Amino acid sequence: MSRRITGFTPSGELHLGNYFGAIKPLVDEQIPDRSIIFVSDLHALTLDHDPAAVRRRTLEFAAVLLAAGADPARSIFLVQSHVPEHTELHYLLESVTGYGEARRMIQFKEKSKDSDRVRVSLLTYPVLMAADILLYHAGEVPVGADQRQHVELARDIAERFNAAYGPVFTVPRMVNPPVAARIMDLARPAVKMSKSTSPAGTLRLLDSPDTLRHKVMRAATDPGSAVEYDPGNRPGIANLLTILSACTGEDPADAAARSGGYADLKRTVADAVIATTDPIRHRYADLGRDPEAVRKILQDGVIRARLIAGNTVAAAKRAIGLLPA
Length: 325
Ligand code: AQP
Hints:
Layout: E1 3-8, H1 16-27, E2 35-39, H2 51-67, E3 75-79, H3 85-94, H4 99-103, H5 106-112, H6 120-134, E4 138-142, H7 148-165, E5 173-175, H8 209-217, H9 235-248, H10 252-258, H11 262-288, H12 291-320
Parallel strand pairs: 1-2, 1-4, 2-3, 4-5
């Protein structure tokens, strides 16, 4: 059985899109020594960043992920920069990646377009993401739909390396959740909910119940008043129904049929979001009282991760032609 891996970049605050797109699919199926969850702190250095905020959020992300169900007894749980093999493999993989390939990444194009001081790491971080995945021979990568191109790049790099230098890497595949692979921003349903979009449109996992309710009740809706699941023509309502479906497991069209109008739907969605996130907030509050326990879990994770990662890097170095020390 192959491993499963997913990571979270401490560039803002974790939200419901992160939860349904990647956290829940991974924590629901944790298998000892087969599941890897990490805080991708190095990815947070690709845009202007505040060093103190990245450090603080890294520990906060670790605590939120634990509160959301990451179980160190069943998963290897780590911070990316604590395992130097991530960056070591990154360089080796850069040596089998084309500049044109990296430049074609949609996230690079979007995040670089309004900046005149683009960091080289913004161009190359998808290769680091390939290293994150290939390092652990992960066959499955549970992620949201926005990560499709990056996982495809990881596949291409693995196949190219294996063909040129021998079979070192497992070729990964992306796993999307059946619903909620792309939750949209509540205030602007044309863009995905994200750490860096509008606070009003982003349901943060640590938002208070009142804040969550306020944001849902103010969500942008569509002209008309019928509650129908029609993502093409009624994106605002479809997004609310998708969120409801992700929270309750009910089919979005069935939820639409049961709903008594926009206000009624919003009340139901707010209740479902609060019920889903309440246990996370409570466990987070408990963990917050003992940050040392979180640090200890991360230290254990590094030891376990390096046992796998060290072997992969050694094999990759040998295959690509480096003289063993
Ligand atoms: N809106 C979303 N719906 C479903 N899945 C989502 N993911 C992100 N947004 C949604 C998934 O969450 C995982 C972690 O994402 P990330 O930390 O790597 O960063 P990201 O995709 O860049 O997340 P954001 O929130 O959009 O951050 P910013 O604004 O900083 O770029 C990934 O599996 C992602 O697919």
